[in-house]
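Lab notebook, bench 4. The sequencing result for the construct came back, and we need a structural model before the next group meeting so we can plan mutations. Quick request posted to the team channel:

Model the 3D structure of this chain.
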Amino acid sequence: MRAKFPWLMLLVSCLILSGFARQAAVPPQAAPPDDRRITLDVVVTDHSGNPVSGLQQQDFTVLDNKKPQSILSFAASGSAGKAADSTVQAEVLVDAVNAPFQGAAFQRDQLARFLRRNNGELPLPVSLGLIADTPSSPTAASEDGNALAEELESNQFGLRNITRSQGFYGGQERAQLSITDLGRFASNETNQPGRKILIWLGPGWPLLTGPEVLLSNKDQQELFRTVIGLSTALREARITLYNVSATTLNGSLGQALYYQTFLKGVSSPNQIQNGNLALQVFAVQSGGLILNESNDLDTSIADCLRDARSYYTLSFDSAAAKRPDEYHSLQVKIDKPKLVARTRTGYYAQP
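Done. Here's the predicted structure in C-alpha cell form:
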C-alpha cells in the first residue's frame, strides 16, 4: 500500500510563510558579512552528566566536516545556582495533541509540581506554551513558579480537548500540526537575543516511517526543505530543544528508541524519510536531551534547566558551500579526559 502525504505541500507553504524556511540560494553580493558565522552553545559534562565550568578556549576544538576550525569568539557562562546568563530563557511546550487525555493531564500535574519546587523559585525565567489545534500565545516569562503553577491550574492550561481520526492519517494530522507549531516558535525567537531552552513536554508526533510508507520524489523534496528550514531556524534562534515524556506514553522500548535510526543528518532528498522529522531527532541535533525513561517528569524538567547553569558560546566561520543546502557535520572536542561536549550536530550551508 502506498501512503501519500497530501499535507506536505501545505505544511511547507506554512513554514515558508511563517518566515523560517530559508531561500535555496542567496546572491553573494546580497549576503551580509557574517552570513557564514556559526554560533554554538556548548554544554560540557562530566561522567555523571553534571555541567562543567572553568574551561578555556584552548580546551576546545571545533570540527566542521571533520576539519578543525579557528574559533573567532569564546565566552564562558557559569555559576553555582542560577542560570549562567541573564539572557537565557526557557519555555515549556505542553503537548496536548499527541498524548491521550489522561497522559496530558498527568504531564500538566507534573509540570505544576516542578513549578512549585523550592517554594516556587525558578533558576531562570520560564514561560508556558501549548501545542493544540488553535495557536495560542505563551505566558509571560517569570521566575515565580507559584504564579505560573496557579495560571496552569486555574486555566486548565494544557488539557487535551482535541478529537481527531486515529491511525495513519490521524498521525499525519498530528505531525503537521506539531511541526508547524514548532516552526512558529522558532520563527518568533529568531530575532530575540540570547540562548533559549525549549522543553517539549510530551511524546512527540508519530514518525510515520515503515516499509509500507513510500515517498515520491516530490514528497522527498518537500520533506528535505522542511528539515532544512526547521533545522536552520532552531540554530539561528539559538534554541536547544529537549524532549521530556513519561515512560507510560512512549510505547515499547523499541518504539521509544526508534528515533535513533534517523539521528545522522541528511544531505540530499533521496536520503530522507519521515523519521528525519521526528521531535527527538531535532532535539538531539540541536544539542538537547531526550528524557523519556521516567514518570518523574518534574525532575526531568529540572535536569533540562541544569544545562543553563554552565555553558560555553563560541563561533567560527564556515567554508563557502559549493552547492545550495550543503550539509556540514559538527563536532566539539574537549582537551581534557572524561569530559563530553554536547552541542548542535550539523547545519546546512549556502553558497
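The CA atoms of residues 64 and 107 lie 38 Å apart.
Will bring this to the meeting.
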